[in-house]
Specification:
single chain, 455 residues, alpha+beta, Penicillin-binding protein 2a (Domain 2), Beta-lactamase, 2 domains, 6-stranded mixed β-sheet, 5-stranded antiparallel β-sheet, 19 strands
Length: 455
């Protein structure tokens, strides 16, 4: 009898272990079903690791940017479009990190946990981007590295993205890993770039001044072309004489803004940096991660370095996507939606299986501060750069010429339309090109006016 009981217990124990193992296996299969189904060994989707079967990717006008034909992955007809959107679409061999052919693979291939992968056709992925505008932006960057992006600051929809260097997916150069001109070619600079911001950072210092220095609009500053500060010198780009806060921002006076940074102190400058959303890494709606910025201001920083930090030099670094987000918030009264470019995925029956749900970017600026800063940025264009630069547009903005050791400066422009009927913000960075107004401002003006004419 005892022997039978022992055997019964053993059988029950073995059965329990088997059932537990089976349950664990089933749980693993279901929880990782998508991962298993979409692996490169799946012959329905891949051939020797190369994507051969997925749905269409189309731009905001229905132009095909990627599609499958006769078991082969095809791309946009225009070579500039292919190069401009390489980092957004990705390639079929997996060289580009963060392309939507990878990040949205489930939605694109028509994967369903019940039916698995659609063997004949995937879903159509619809973007918010205008491919022609992206190609124009890519050409506007030439021959420099950098990025340009335009976002609807009321909705968060990105209508234009271009990053350089890039290449035509149909004609990949053999010297990508050897030529200096292709350095960083696999990086989407909008999301993954970190740059010295130069004078665009004066918008951050101005934000801090508006919120923390009560009499900032009553102060004046004298600029003789340089200013002794903390045992060193702040060098200005001109001799501005006596200027007000507004004039100092208009004329991008380093001397004035170095003094303002010292008045603010490191703590308040850091707070302004965080308020602008420049110190965080964004997990975007488009399943990408951005680089978090670095503010040079710290408790141990010298007075001289604090002055340089306030004008966007020293060790301060910012990400272009985050700066665009900041501009969207200023334009939109203090808050913004997270910028995004994947709108929806639609199956063969016309049913949306994925739809972007715009979310707050997390940037929150006092509405009064945002309004004041908006008027200051409008004054930069109307009173200093000149409205003629943007044709028929009423623009707000700030240029930056970020000094880089032993190299040409990085050129920046950040800004937005003052007119709510044309609610678009823009960022442009052209590496080692020179003047922010000439190069980045010129590229931004070209894309914004082209968009305006399209609409």
């Amino acid at each position: 009898m005892k022997t039978i009981n022992k055997r019964t217990i053993l059988i029950i124990a073995v059965t329990a272990v088997f059932l537990a193992f089976t349950a664990l296996l089933m749980f693993s299969m279901f929880s990782h079903a998508e991962e298993y189904a979409l692996k490169t060994i799946n012959a329905h989707l891949f051939d020797n690791g190369i994507l051969i079967n997925a749905g269409d990717i189309v731009d905001s006008n229905g132009v095909k940017l990627a599609y499958t034909e006769n078991g082969e992955r095809k791309y946009a007809e225009n070579s500039d479009t292919r190069a401009a959107l390489l980092h957004i679409i990705g390639d079929d061999k997996g060289f580009i990190d963060g392309g939507i052919q990878d990040t949205f693979r489930e939605d694109l291939c028509g994967y369903n946990i019940v039916y698995g992968v659609n063997k004949t056709s995937g879903n159509t992925l619809k973007l918010t981007l205008d491919s022609k505008l992206c190609a124009s932006a890519y050409n506007a960057l030439y021959p420099y590295k950098g990025c340009i992006a335009v976002c609807n600051y009321k909705t968060g929809e990105l209508v234009c993205i271009a990053t350089s260097p890039s290449y035509d997916v149909y004609n990949k150069p053999n010297d990508l890993d050897d030529e200096e001109k292709y350095e960083g070619v696999y990086i989407n600079r909008l999301f993954g770039g970190l740059y010295t911001p130069g004078s665009t950072f004066k918008t951050v210092t101005a934000l801090g001044a508006i919120e923390n220095i009560d009499d900032i609009f009553n102060q004046t500053f004298y600029c003789s072309g340089s200013y002794s500060l903390g045992g060193g010198k702040i060098i200005c780009n001109d001799v501005h004489g006596t200027v007000t806060f507004k004039q100092a921002l208009n004329q991008s006076c380093n001397v004035a803004f170095a003094q303002i940074a010292v008045q603010l102190g490191a703590d308040n400058l850091n707070k302004a940096f965080e308020t602008a959303g420049l110190g965080i890494s964004h997990d975007t709606i488009d399943r990408l991660h951005t680089k978090s910025g670095i503010c040079a201001a710290s408790e141990s920083i010298s007075e001289n370095e604090l002055g340089w930090a306030g004008i966007g030099q020293s060790t301060t670094l910012v990400n272009p996507y985050s700066f665009l987000n900041f501009m969207c918030a200023v334009a939109n009264g203090g808050t913004s939606y997270e910028p995004y470019f994947v709108k929806s995925a639609v199956n063969g029956s016309g049913r949306a299986v994925y739809e972007a749900e715009p979310v707050s970017s997390g940037v929150s600026i006092n509405p009064s501060t945002a309004s004041t800063l908006k008027e200051l940025l409008r004054s930069n264009v109307s009173d200093y750069y000149g409205d003629y630069m943007f044709g028929g547009l009423t623009m707000c903005g700030k240029t930056g010429t970020a000094e880089i050791d032993n190299k040409q400066p990085h050129a920046w422009f950040v800004g937005f339309s003052y007119d709510d009927s044309f609610p678009y913000a823009v960022v442009a960075v052209l590496e080692n090109s020179g003047s922010g107004l000439k190069y980045a401002g010129g590229a931004a003006a070209k894309i914004m006016t082209e968009l305006y004419e399209k609409l």
